[in-house]
Amino acid sequence: MMERFLADEDATVALARALAPLLQTGDCLALSGDLGMGKSTFARALIRARMEEPELEVPSPTFTLVQFYDGAPPLYHFDLYRLADPDELIELGFDEALEDGISLIEWPERGGDMLPDDVLTLSLEEEGDGRRVRLRGGQERLAALAVAFI
Ligand SMILES: Nc1ncnc2c1ncn2[C@@H]1O[C@H](COP(=O)(O)OP(=O)(O)O)[C@@H](O)[C@H]1O
Ligand SMILES: [Mg+2]
Known about the structure:
The protein is α/β, with parallel strands linked by helices.
């Protein structure tokens, strides 16, 4: 597990930008934390960095459940808050996303057993005026991502 304190929104954005180039095809990054902790802020900054478009519109996938970005590799931004049943992920193309792209998942808890075993989980928790961020996952991927946490 790696952790850091993020003093403000800029620090959340900076971490997302630092992690962005380190992600690879097949990575599944679950963003967990209560409402208002910065999951969407983090996802937006990471998507903009990967797409190399600082002003890119990043709509919330609250209703569509998934937004696709045609990057190399492709990016899939999921928000599972409104998922009625984890099996719905099959119709959303979750398997393909995991295989050929990078997946970011808000409200991953709603995905139940459908999340892969090698998921990376980034959690955001309130701490004073800022956030405590923790990254958990397989040792090998964590080691590769460690540089973003310095
Ligand atoms: N490290 C941080 N410290 C304090 N506030 C933050 C930090 N990161 C993000 N925020 C703020 O918290 C709010 C997060 O909103 P949002 O990203 O929509 O959260 P979520 O998607 O988790 O509900 C925004 O107002 C943002 O400015
Ligand atoms: Mg959100």
